Amino acid sequence: xxxxxxxxxxxxxxxxxxxxxxxxxxxxxxxxxxxxxxxxxxxxxxxxxxxxxxxxxxxxxxxxxxxxxxxxxxxxxxxxxxxxxxxxxxxxxxxxxxxxxxxxxxxxxxxxxxxxxxxxxxxxxxxxxxxxxxxxxxxxxxxxxxxxxxxxxxxxxxxxxxxxxxxxxxxxxxxxxxxxxxxxxxxxxxxxxxxxxxxxxxxxxxxxxxxxxxxx
Amino acid sequence: xxxxxxxxxxxxxxxxxxxxxxxxxxxxxxxxxxxxxxxxxxxxxxxxxxxxxxxxxxxxxxxxxxxxxxxxxxxxxxxxxxxxxxxxxxxxxxxxxxxxxxxxxxxxxxxxxxxxxxxxxxxxxxxxxxxxxxxxxxxxxxxxxxxxxxxxxxxxxxxxxxxxxxxxxxxxxxxxxxxxxxxxxxxxxxxxxxxxxxxxxxxxxxxxxxxxxxxxxxxxxxxxxxxxxxxxxxxxxxxxxxxxxxxxxxxxxxxxxxxxxxxxxxxxxxxxxxxxxxxxxxxxxxxxxxxxxxxxxxxxxxxxxxxxxxxxxxxxx
Amino acid sequence: xxxxxxxxxxxxxxxxxxxxxxxxxxxxxxxxxxxxxxxxxxxxxxxxxxxxxxxxxxxxxxxxxxxxxxxxxxxxxxxxxxxxxxxxxxxxxxxxxxxxxxxxxxxxxxxxxxxxxxxxxxxxxxxxxxxxxxxxxxxxxxxxxxxxxxxxxxxxxxxxxxxxxxxxxxxxxxxxxxxxxxxxxxxxxxxxxxxxxxxxxxxxxxxxxxxxxxxxxxxxxxxxxxxxxxxxxxxxxxxxxxxxxxxxxxxxxxxxxxxxxxxxxxxxxxxxxxxxxxxxxxxxxxxxxxxxxxxxxxxxxxxxxxxxxxxxxxxxxxxxxxxxxxxxxxxxxxxxxxxxxxxxxxxxxxxxxxxxxxxxxxxxxxxxxxxxxxxxxxxxxxxxxxxxxxxxxxxxxxxxxxxxxxxxxxxxxxxxxxxxxxxxxxxxxxxxxxxxxxxxxxxxxxxxxxxxxxxxxxxxxxxxxxxxxxxxxxxxxxxxxxxxxxxxxxxxxxxxxxxxxxxxxxxxxxxxxxxxxxxxxxxxxxxxxxxxxxxxxxxxxxxxxxxxxx
Lengths: 216, 317, 550
What we know:
By secondary structure, chain A is mainly alpha-helical. Chain A is built from six helices and no strands. The model of chain A has no long low-confidence stretch (mean pLDDT 89). Chain B has helices at residues 20-53, 69-99, 205-215, 221-231, 235-238, 268-276, 299-311; strands at 106-113, 116-120, 126-128, 131-134, 138-145, 150-154, 159-163, 169-174, 179-185, 198-203, 255-257, 263-265. The interface between B and C is large, with 87 and 94 residues.
């Protein structure tokens, strides 16, 4: 049976009230996520421009992307968002052990994504798609195909970088969250971090159709 | 022996204008300057006057009424804006003319590269950095860059246009004042960007004809292109009897149906792209077997071959 | 006697101490307390020192450029050196001086004070922003030391990706990193303004400076990520040959121009808006009168931050842009001038029938109005399509943006620095020297940059190391002006530092100005306000007295 823990936030000195602190943290994270969305939007824009200008070449390129690994990864991340939501819900209830369990599950699923992605990159390498590593390029000599594949690598690598960062922070947060009195003083951190995790998921939910699915 | 550049006196505050369009641009900017002064000099005078008249400690009337602020704000927002819009329109109209070369223009091919310009007249006469043109005739420069972005700038004509490395851009003019003027590259392109300049010489038609003869060339651009076309065996597939590849007769300027369902016009950029990257923009109804000439043909060669293709007419029945 | 007098700073004279909290400057003296401070005021001063250092570097580069241009045949430096000089001048001045200048120094210091808060929303993030700035700055310094970069601050492809033989990647990394500093500062300010205003401080009771900081922060948040991804793609292309911009690999260099200018046009408004906010404060304080058309000025700030995102194509009229696009961008560029004009007219109306004090900050403000108007209107010339076809990439453009950046932003920065110097440091600067400095800068600036308008119309392209001999006279004039301008900059640096030890002690409100920052001591206490302010008055309440009849 879980122990009931007092749930709350320790007010920082420069805030007048806890509500002010909560609202500020939330607005801050949403603003950050907006900038991250804009960052990825440049890449989505280029992918879409390539699709519109060179539809045949891009369709050819997408046949070499590992659709089922991508689909599996999408499912993995969606599940991880569920577990993260679970962590948030449990944090509000004060169920510390359950919350920590959900956070570990989220981190595990995130790591699973990275593992699958790494395996996918290995397969791409074996198929001679990594022109930038100097290997002889195996796909059609069409430039647009090569460009699209390169955009695929940059976009998924940037997303992967965010995921690695996310998992690292999550693990640190999990260790901190396991300590006594954490929920009494810093419950808000779980909520705010949850926003970031959902965002990493959201970006992938845009990446997957834009790169893997359209024109397939 | 350096030519006398028109309007190049050290104390000159205004550049020479070599075309009617250039003079019109001058009128535009002078008029705009006039309106600008009308809108701004009162402000400078006002703040100076207010700063002195209402200096702290001076005994003066400072009471003012409130309440008409919104009307004042709206009027000083909308009236200057409306006045300046006239200049937007005038500039857009001139620009519109500048972007549409007349159909009867004499076409000069230009290639910009680090760090020089190569101009080629239709008759094959080539010039490096300098450009001779006849007055009183529409001249269109069709240009491309061989490496980075450059820009051909002709201040006496008040025009410039960038040259890009993957497609042709155009600039056109009709000069009417013979003389020698400056020609520059105005888009920063590396070490010798500022040494990519030359002389634009506008000549009377008679003088220009003489110059063409003296400049000497053995063949026109199209003739050079014909030699290249033969040398690289293009006819092997593209001649009428071959049936392996589309015939090029009359292709320039025609509408082409592409394999993905879209249509495009076969202009210089399209033809150049098909020679370099035949796997792109695949044509509907044909099997793509053309090899790429990337790295084989130089930019000059491409210009000449395209010039030749343009001369290929539909066979008359 | 202000609380700052109460702290015993001079044990030698055995002044009596009064038991009051120390101000933020004197509370702790250790290096650690400065370099790890989360106090927004100390962070503001850290930024001030850093941007001053970079300003000096950028100014040296400028002096060398003007030196080289005294002769038309390029004999003073090699072309490669010259190209590196103007590139470093641009990169340093834009990203390491102008963009952080007013927001990161004055914004950090004054924003919480002006809205009655104890600090910004995220003080630790604020410190992190500073160190991210320093990290980016270090990359740029390293680039400078190992040999420099010669692409121009605009980094156009394919020159930057494929043809330049200089240290492009470290330069790009420096700019990418410093972008994160901007984003986080903008984020901090937006949240602070939304959530940390003291009771009674409604949006329309905030000083205009806060409105402009808000507008600037919106641009920080929305524009900076786009340059970040554009420059990341440049690095990818240069390092790995992933050709999004190189036509030989199937890419399009014009795509880079779009991504670059989508940020860089709003970026110039990052540099302009805070300056406008400062000028509004100066004009109100030194006219002892409330801002005319406060709401219009506030809305104009937001309008500028919005419309600025729609005009980037006016940098690309002659790169083969379609006629329709060019026409639309031209029209929108005319529209974006309207909110700026609103501010200028409102400043003029504020001065009308005020009680004018011509102290140094007001001299800078008046200089700003003149020079900014000239700069802005020459911008309209450039927005006119047929005129831009002649003036694009000439010295006319160089003159235009220096009128805005130096004649505008720099003068606003110096005016604000003098105005708030007593608040930052507790000392007054020497007024006579202040006026001399302002005069030198105004004269030096005009002698340097006005000839460049003429050079541009005559057809002298920008970024030119070698130029036709007929332009030499005007170039020499411009370089001569640069020496006067340099002397002008040197002046305040010297006397402001001098004033730290020998300046008159400043009272809490030496200018009799309105605004919450003036209700604190000079310098303010660490936590800004002993009690949370309660605001039940309108801003700029100068006219709460019977009207004078002369």
